[in-house]
Write a structure and sequence with these properties.
By secondary structure, this protein is of the alpha/beta class. The protein contains twelve helices and ten strands. Helix 3 (about 85-100) links the parallel strand 4 and strand 5. The structure holds 5'-O-[(R)-(carboxyoxy)(hydroxy)phosphoryl]adenosine (KG4) and zinc ion.
């Protein structure tokens, strides 16, 4: 079964052709990073205009690279939520037009759930194995920082989330403070390699210590506003040489990533997870990947890391997850709305209820 995935929720126009939810025949991404760089963040109206310019060539390229035509597709999956409304509207209008003219079914995908699936595109066998559940997923991107628990009944729930900034946002804002450009994650990852992560003792939000207890209801939640403010004061009125900058960046990165690792492992143990997975743009981070791997090993937890190409925004994760919905006949009409916010409750993950031992 072939699905065409389309993604336009933020600053990447992407399309992919995926076979049976796991074989990526093509994945084309047109990034607008250079355009938004000058503003230090994504401008929704500019993003929408760029999507409009790029969507048709990107979809054409994905079909061409896969050696397929739109008539070969068994269905179309498009990111419908959450995201920037003007940006989502472009991808959704295009997808609906294509699905209607080609006469193929359409399904709207939750981008956040797509990131989750990014860890499993190359490991579908794990999702089809009942022994993998419950899964504890850390979905860490520029828009989201959440811990998701997925039991075998497919009813995923968010057990922890950020109370303020997403982790990627905390990195992007730090880079802005330090004048390192946008997006901050990749440059912080690179500079931190030359620095000492213990040089500065930046605060770690909602982990307790120093006489402060974490309210039990926030045990698995995150807060990054404190560390950002601490950074602002640490560098205020200072001009840093290269080594000082590397030390600040490495310490900041360690504070942000340290909390992610501690809470993901704590949640995995608490909920008896059989598998931990890490995905979303920030999951590209080399320090986070290494720390998460070490912590999971220490705690006897099996870890699946999303490959970097499926961490940052892409349409392969959308097309691949879409396959599971389309296979079950779970489709959407042409009146499907787009939504800015992550819905309060996640959908039922079809691959979990389709796991063979679970029927
Ligand atoms: O998943 P994504 O492409 O878009 C959202 O859905 O938000 O994530 C983008 C985020 C940005 O904040 C970017 O700085 C961060 O991912 N990022 C990284 C790295 N590469 C991208 N953060 C840390 N280390 C990286 N290597
Ligand atoms: Zn994303």
């Amino acid at each position: 079964m072939l699905t065409l995935g389309i993604e336009s929720s933020c600053d990447e126009t992407a399309a992919a052709v995926v076979q049976d939810g796991g074989t990526v025949l093509s994945s084309v991404i047109s990034s607008q990073i250079k355009l938004h760089c000058a503003y230090g963040g994504v401008i929704p109206e500019l993003a929408a205009r760029e999507h409009l310019k790029n969507i048709s060539p990107v979809v054409d390229a994905a079909l061409r690279q896969a050696g397929k035509g739109v008539g070969d597709m068994d269905g179309l999956a498009v990111t419908a939520r959450p995201g920037l409304i003007p940006a989502l509207l472009v991808g959704n209008a295009y997808a609906k037009g294509l699905a209607a003219t080609a006469g193929i079914p359409l399904v709207g995908i939750n981008h956040f759930e797509g990131h989750f699936y990014g860890a499993f595109i190359e490991h579908q066998e794990l999702l089809a194995d009942r022994g993998s559940y419950p899964i504890l997923a850390a979905v860490i991107s520029g828009g989201h920082t959440a811990l998701v628990l997925l039991p075998a009944d497919g009813r995923a729930r968010i057990v922890g989330t950020t109370l303020d900034d997403a982790a990627g946002e905390a990195l992007d804002k730090a880079a802005k403070i330090l004048g390192l450009g946008y997006p901050g994650g990749p440059v912080i990852d690179r500079i931190a390699k030359n620095g000492d992560p213990k040089a500065y003792d930046f605060p770690r939000g909602l982990v307790g210590g120093g006489g402060r207890a974490v309210p039990p209801e926030h045990r698995f939640d995150f807060s990054f506003s404190g560390v950002k403010t601490a950074l602002l004061y640490a560098v205020k009125d200072r001009s840093l040489n290269d080594q000082e900058l590397a030390d600040v960046v490495a310490s900041y990165q360690a504070a942000v990533m340290g909390v992610l690792v501690t809470k993901a492992v704590d949640a995995a143990r608490h909920f008896g997870a059989r598998l931990v997975c890490l995905s979303g743009g920030v999951a590209c981070n080399s320090y986070l990947r290494a720390e998460m791997a070490a912590a999971c090993e220490r705690n006897g937890l099996r870890l699946v890391l999303a490959p970097p190409k499926y961490c940052t925004d892409n349409a392969a994760m959308i097309g691949a997850l879409g396959f599971h919905y389309l296979k079950r006949g779970w489709t959407d009409g042409l009146d499907m709305p787009v939504e800015a916010r992550l819905p309060q409750t996640l959908g039922i993950f079809p691959f979990a209820i389709d796991a063979p031992d679970n029927k």
